[in-house]
Amino acid sequence: MGRKILYQDAINEALDQEMARDDSVIVMGEDVVGGTGASGEMDAWGGVLGVTKGLYGKYGNRIMDSPISESALVGAAVGAAATGMRPVCELMFIDFMGVCFDQIYNQAAKFRYMFGGKATTPVVIRTMYGAGFRAAAQHSQCLYNIFTHVPGLKVVMPSSPYDAKGLLIQAIRDDDPVIFCEHKALYATEGDVPEESYAIPFGEANIVREGDDVTIVALGRMVRFATKAAEALVADGINCEIVDPRTSSPLDEETILESVEATGRLVVVDESNPRCSMATDISSLVSQKGFSSLQAPIEMVTAPHTPVPFSGALEDLYIPSPDKIEAAVRKTAAYGN
Amino acid sequence: MSNTAITAITMPKWGLSMVEGKVIEWLVEENTTIAVGDEIMDIETEKIANTFEALDSGVLKRKVAEPDQSLPIGALLGVLAESNISDEDIDAFIKDFQANYTPPEIQEGEESETSYAWVEIDDYRIRYLRMGVDKRNIILIHGFGGDLDRWLFTQGPLSANASVYSLDLPGHGQSTKTIRDGSVAAMASLVTKFMDHVGIDHAHLVGHSLGGAIALQTTINDPDKVDALSLIATAGIGVEINGSYISGFVQAESRREIKPLLQQLVGDPSLINRNLIDDILKYKRLDGVTEALEIIATEFIDRDQQTIDFRNHLASLSIPVHVIWGSADQIIPASHAKNLPGNVNVDVLEGFGHLVQVEAAGEVNKLLQG
Amino acid sequence: MATNLSIEDLLDAYRTMRTIREFEERVHVEFAKGGIPGFVHLYAGEEASATGVCMNLKEDDYIASNHRGHGHCIAKGVEVTGMMSEIYGRGSGTCHGKGGSMHIADLDVGMMGANGIVGGGPPLVCGAGLTAKLRGKGNIALAFFGDGASNQGTTLESMNLATVWKLPVVFVAENNGYAEATASSWSVSCKDISKRAAGFGMPGTTIDGHDFFAVHEATRAAVERARSGGGPSLIECKLDRFFGHFEGDNQKYREPNEVKTIREENDCIKRFSDTITNDSDITVGDLATIDREVKILIDDAVEKAITGTDPEPDKLLTDVYIRY
Q1: Residue A74: inside a domain, yes or no?
Q2: What pLDDT, on the 0 to 100 scale, is given for residue B17?
Q3: Which of B43, B75, B100 is the last residue of a domain?
Q4: Closest CB from C34, C250, C302 relative to B73
Q5: Do B302 and B362 lie in a common domain?
Q6: Domains recognised in chain C with CATH numbers
Q7: CA nearest B47: which of B18, B90, B13, B23?
Q8: How far apart are CA A181 and CA A144, in angstroms?
Q9: CB burial class (10 A; 0-12, 13-18, 19+) of residue B159?
Q10: How far does the CA of residue C295 sit from the closest CA of chain A (Å)?
């Protein structure tokens, strides 16, 4: 394809192109500009990790800093969406959903249904998730499964720069509320991204790698870990197919089921805690609708049922690793053989 | 903390995601006495350029890092020491530090890129690729929904003894997607202008499918510019065309929709792999592509029939004309290669589909070179 | 120096402030060297607030803190060696390496936790105040929060609740001028956060947070009111942070010389030591002795933190529940 850019620059480019295309697209969040009202430079941060940097210079008051008031911020984005704008609201860390969840799940998610199909709420909530930065229990969680549980929300978790740009553009153009989950550890990863605008439809899984022996369904950052494990397993003659659902709601059930139909074995990799998770959800899907395809019990590789520990020694154990994925694949591949 | 006589100045970590920094310049000279907080160096990272302030005090005995050097966090930048420490001790310290230092892990990224070029023609930005240097020129013109990558297996081999150009037509590949006029005539005039812009006086035109029709039209318009014509599974010399393939291709959004369509392009469906499907979906998702393809399609087909016909022009062409087809073509039937005028060379390759130049690259390349 | 504090009190206050400063300056250096993982938010520059406030509190009084919590911890009596080890993620840390800089807590000394959620503390303090009130032991609860948190619904709801329930609570807003990179002069809709107190039916006052004595006196009155059943109060300390929002912050939103000027002209410790060496029998030598002792303490804490061991792997699964 040619041009390689970082995951975070792909997100920035998607915002830039959509803001240029449609003046109803606005960006709001805490320090998405950075420096508002202060003595130094405006756009000093451009987001806590610089993801929205430069948009202020191009779009002025269409990108707005907010006081630290997540309920009011997210609620205002939802209200603006319901009245004709297309706000992209940044909830800095997904963990902060705890502060403002009502506005998301009782308000945004339910308007369409409660109001008899009369409301349209095209809000995007961009939020950072994931462990690995020694950021401890309140800045490291993978809570996408909680949003996935709520009817009315669409939930997206791009695993590559290409997907980040295309899925964000789709999220902005989509007329439903979208929770757009960005893994911190992916921001600095690089990949091919076209300069032109493009939208990746929701509910279409990406087959990251083809293989006949074991299906690995992995989400977000875990796609990279699964790829690493799959590469290592080739030496032992185990060929893994890796399916990245890209969106957990809607979920591309068919691609998952088709893959398991071909391989007969499934490993689900989910960085989140194991209970009521995407891992259990996908396992349940396959045991209900793909039972006859299965030649071995489904394996789940997840974080344990604990908060995220601070200490690096513990956090490294907490996060599902390529080694653990490899072990799970070996286990399921050996079953019955 | 123990106060050692020699202290390392190391690449600082500014922010969570920083893995390395680039030295812009030193702000102090060797043998200067430095206090904590003194500005010693400008460093640039992916996100931040900033001044590095001393975290320890002492005499700057040695600058280890040089301007423009990119170094991972924790790497040695310089050495501070008390003034009475000898150079030998400093050398030993540096040697010891470097021997024990391991940079933090970063993931590998490989680079191997073909270098494309662009020309501005009218309102279009046209991407093209040139391979080979020779007096003979060949221009490869892809078909509907394709791009210059369709010539992946063609362009390299042909470039052994020719300058071979492939281009992305408007609405395709990485060329401009907004199309005013999607007719074969407009595309043909663009090919002529392309030759002028790039400085090709005359060339052997090779066209696939719709690209064949465009090559034919170009030849009819400017016979002097064309040395020879190779038409692969070409449009424009018969009526029938698989209209449901065309409309399906234009509308398809997902892998599940597009895979069976693409499988119609080849004799052996297993050739349609994940990468090809992904590439085509990536192209199809670009803004403006669906609209562009619709505009182009309406100009040359109406349901299952082609609305352009150059068959009657073939006999009057005074240059070598070669028609190549796969016998199992499901898009434009190989029967169009039958009953052509005597000046046309015809080769039908048994068992291959519409993308015969991909599927039977070796044989097609031989025919193109012969 | 209008104060009834004894020489011992003043020396204690100095020691606390110095300890916080030394601790934070060292964390700044060690973070830059790459030894400290995660997010770190430093309190240097704001020492007079934590110290002046907490000198009015007893061990069984509670405080809730925020992400910039090291100073509050030290002033409330959390032991610095454990804190430093915690910041390094060691098993010997205050929270056994599981919390880190943003979640240091020690309930034994009434420290209910630093907090990673802006506005997380004020509601908790209402609960602690409720316990104090219902148990009738005469203890109180106090929330430290920033200008950023003053705009959170949780903070405003807590102030209302504290008045409605007449809780023995003190709210201390530390307004250091910035919520992350955004100026409080812009993000706070009124000139002084303390003006909001009137709307919640409690006294509110804004003071110079660089002035230890002003902080101490304002808190004394608020704590007395809380202890005597008078209900909650709000104090706004206007002060400055010497470092960025977090370590790694480029601080481009601040004028280039802003921090330098603050350090030179409005260093709360300098102001305090000038006052006490001029107006009492305390000498510069007394303070230098404390400086040396503090430095040894912090050096030792860093040494122990650096050489400390990581938590055992099985600790990953412990303390999620008490029983499960």
Answers
A1: yes
A2: 54
A3: B100
A4: C34
A5: yes
A6: 7-317 (3.40.50.970)
A7: B18
A8: 7
A9: middle
A10: 26
> Tokens 């993000």 appear where?
C187
- Of all residues in chain A, the one with the smallest CA distance to C180 is A31
Domain membership flag for residue B358 = yes
Confidence of residue B362 (pLDDT cuts 50, 70, 90): confident
pLDDT-derived band at B2, boundaries 50, 70, 90: very low
Mean pLDDT score, B47-71: 82
**Are both A105 and A242 inside the same structural domain?**
no
Shortest alpha-carbon distance between residue A252 and chain C (Å): 33
- Give me the CATH number covering residue A74: 3.40.50.970
Mapped onto helix, strand or coil, the DSSP state of residue B34 is strand
Q: Which of B1, B2, B13 sits opposite C32 (nearest CB)?
A: B13
- Closest among C192, C224, C197, C223 to C209, alpha carbons compared: C192
Amino acid at position B202, single letter: H
Residue A269: half-sphere exposure toward Cβ, Cα within 13 Å: 32
Contact residues, chain A, for C37 at CB < 8 Å: 134, 310, 312
Please tell me the distance from the alpha carbon of residue C223 to that of residue C237, in angstroms, as a whole number.
Answer: 15
CATH of residue A316's domain is 3.40.50.920
- Tens digits of residue pLDDT in A209-246: 999 999 999 999 999 999 999 999 999 999 999 999 99
pLDDT tens digits, residue range C67-117?
A: 999 999 999 999 999 999 999 999 999 999 999 999 999 999 999 999 999
The answer on A175 and A31 residing in a single domain is: yes
**Owning domain of residue B96:** 6-100
Contact C117 A98 (CB under 8 A): yes
Cα distance between residue B229 and residue B316, in whole Å: 13
Burial C253-266 (b: 16+ CB within 10 A, else e): bbeeebbeebeeeb
B196 in the same domain as B95: no
- The count of domains in chain A is 2
The CB density around residue C50, as the number of other CB atoms within 10 Å, is 30
Q: Which residue has the tokens 């910041």?
A: C87
| Residue B40 domain flag | yes
pTM above 0.90?
Answer: no
Q: Which residues contact B110 (CB under 8 A, 6 or more apart)?
A: none
Rounded distance, CA A284 to CA A274, Å? 13
As annotated, the active-site residues of A are 139
Chains touching A (3+ CB pairs < 8 Å): B, C
Q: Which structure tokens are listed for B178?
A: 């907004």
Is the CB of residue B303 less than 8 Å away from at least one CB of chain A?
Answer: no
SS3 B182: coil
- pLDDT reading at B44 higher than 80: no
Chain A CB contacts of B168 under 8 Å are none
* Residue A182 shares a structural domain with residue A219: no
- Whether B215 and B138 share a structural domain: yes
Res A42 pLDDT > 80: yes
pLDDT at B103: 80
Question: Which residue bears the tokens 């989400």?
Answer: A219
What is the DSSP secondary structure assignment for residue B21, as one 8-state letter? E
Q: Are residues A69 and A162 in the same domain?
A: yes
- Mean residue pLDDT of chain C comes to 96
A306 touches chain C (CB under 8 A): yes
The whole domain housing A312 covers 206-334
Q: A83-110 pLDDT, tens per residue?
A: 999 999 999 999 999 999 999 999 999 9
Domain with residue B163: its CATH number is 3.40.50.1820
B40 phi/psi in degrees, rounded to 5: -115, -25
CA–CA dist A333, B45 (Å, integer):
44
Q: Structurally, how many domains does chain B consist of?
A: 2
Q: The complex's ipTM?
A: 0.90
Whether A39 and C258 lie within 8 Å, measured CB to CB: yes
